[in-house]
Amino acid sequence: MSGETGAELTALQAVLAAEHAAVYGYGVVGGRVDEGRSTEARAAYDAHRARRDALAREVRGLGAEPVAASAGYALPFPVADSATAVRLAADLEDRVAGVYSDLVRATAGARRRDAAGALREAAVRAARWRGGSVAFPGLAERNGADPATGSASAAAPDAAAGAPAR
Predict the structure, then answer these.
(1) What number of other Cβ atoms are within 10 A of residue 149's Cβ?
(2) Cα angle at 78 between 86 and 30, to 5 degrees?
(3) Going along the chain, which residue ranges are E strands?
(4) In sequence order, which residues have a C-beta less than 8 Å from that of residue 113 and are 6 or more positions away?
(5) Is 151 strand, coil or helix?
(6) Pairwise CA distance, residues 157 & 166, whole Å
(7) Closest C-alpha among 135, 43, 106 to residue 152
(8) How far apart are the C-alpha atoms of 50 and 1, rounded to whole Å?
(9) For the ranges 20-29, 103-112, 133-142, 146-155, which has the lowest average pLDDT?
(10) Are 66 and 55 in contact (CB under 8 A)?
């Protein structure tokens, strides 16, 4: 495998891991969010499931085994009510946008366009959940977020972005 293909595969696997975590996280969001936003949570859950499944097919298409989902993921903070569920949803989207940003950098052509589209979708969902946008979605070092966490909150570095529950 060439270095370029290896970098692309690594980025695809990272996005797939983030999508696994987002699907898990939206299960939590859906269980806590107010009824008025449950349709939005379900739509995001479905979008992340579809992206996850497509990414698994892409990884297989490159001759690799897709990274598996963990049984559980550590959340960056306790989600006890609708307000924290909304905050988690925005955080999940920020984290997904960050890994799609890396995929945009690692790819070209149609895969890059698809990754840019996914980054845009995540940024739009994050803005809807948050009630506002950031200047450079997916680029933590440019949007005022902590580059180590990809979040403006005091979230744990890998929580909800692919870190298995401990």
Answers:
(1) 21
(2) 40
(3) none
(4) none
(5) strand
(6) 14
(7) 135
(8) 27
(9) 146-155
(10) yes
Please say whether the beta carbons of 37 and 26 come within 8 A: no
The SS3 assignment for 73 reads strand
Q: Which two tokens stand for residue 108?
A: 């070209």
**150 close to 22: Cβ distance less than 8 angstroms:** no
For the chain, the straight-line distance linking the first and the last C-alpha, in angstroms and rounded, comes to 34
65: which 2 tokens?
């085994």
Give the SS3 label for residue 152.
Answer: coil
65-92 pLDDT, tens per residue?
A: 999 999 999 999 999 999 999 999 999 9
pTM: 0.81
CA distance 116 to 135: 16
> What integer is the mean pLDDT of 38-60?
98
Tokens of 28: 């939590």
Question: Mean per-residue pLDDT for 122-142?
Answer: 76
**Residue found by looking up tokens 């440019």 in the block:** 142
Sign of CA dihedral 18, 24, 26, 32: negative
User: Encoding tokens for residue 60?
Assistant: 């297989």
